[in-house]
Amino acid sequence: MDLGIAGKRAVVIGGSSGLGYAVCERMAAEGVELVIFARNAEKLHKAREELLQIPGAKVETVEGDITNSDDVERLRNELVKGGGMQILVLNTPPPPRPMFDFLAEQDDQRWEDAYQGQLKGALLILRKLAPLLIGPGWGRIVAITSASIKQPLPNHALSTVYRAGVLAALKHLSMEMAEHGVTVNSVAPAVVVTSTYHTVHNIEERVSRIPLKRAGKPEELAATVAFFASDLAGFITGENVQVDGGFTRSLY
């Protein structure tokens, strides 16, 4: 199936590992030119070298922190010099581990760290980079959130509170960007097998509550992101879709 995005330029925030890297793999396979933004120079280099093994892959990297306005501004300037972008994939870091319920989270620094990485950084990226999509009449923003924003999970207070704020921002942005031909959507995983899979609290219990009785695969989430970034999803905007094997029980 032709997604219609070959030759487009995509920025993947947090694309050097985990779910972000899986998105990069899928995008590269679709012929998308990649710009990966992440904090760890070693991981960035390794990700680029691996992705370049995909036939025809084009990969650039920019080192920086989404919570640092100077770093984000530098990324923006690099994008402008390189011809802009057509696709933005937002993948924020996880909250501090281990995680706890709301009243058990009494450490102010943990709240601050989670706020910086999951909400402040996300808003900074969206505010600085979304304007670059205005003009051509075609653009895509896809964010990776969490199932906890629809169905709050035990021990996920730090994730639920701030990622719900990201979802609200995306809804506002979807309404503002629609007239410019830019769609804004998000995908919400529950349990996906990545390098941090076995560090998740009560992982076996959570998997047992998934109707499909297994954890998700990174490539399954990446395929959904690629669909939202495609021509095929041109009439979908402002939506959040669970990629969770049926874990989320809410009607809306």
Describe this structure as you would to a colleague:
- By secondary structure, the chain is an alpha/beta fold.
- Helices cover about 40% and strands about 15% of the residues.
- The protein has 7 helices and 7 strands.
- The protein has a 7-stranded parallel sheet with strand order 3-2-1-4-5-6-7, with helices on both faces.
- α1 (about 20-30) crosses α7, α3 (about 70-80) packs parallel to α4 and α4 (about 110-130) runs parallel beside α5.
- It is globular.
- The mean pLDDT is about 95.
Q: How does the overall form come out from the CA principal axes? A: globular
Q: Helicity range of the residues?
A: 25-40%
Indicate the proportion of strand residues: 15-25%
Alpha-carbon distance between the termini?
29 Å
Poorly predicted segments:
none
Number of strands: 7
- Can you count the helices? 7
Structural class: alpha/beta
| Overall radius of gyration | 17 Å
The order of strands across the largest sheet is 3-2-1-4-5-6-7
The largest pleated sheet is described as: 7 strands, parallel
- Helix and strand run: EHEHEHEHEHEHHE
Global mean pLDDT: 94
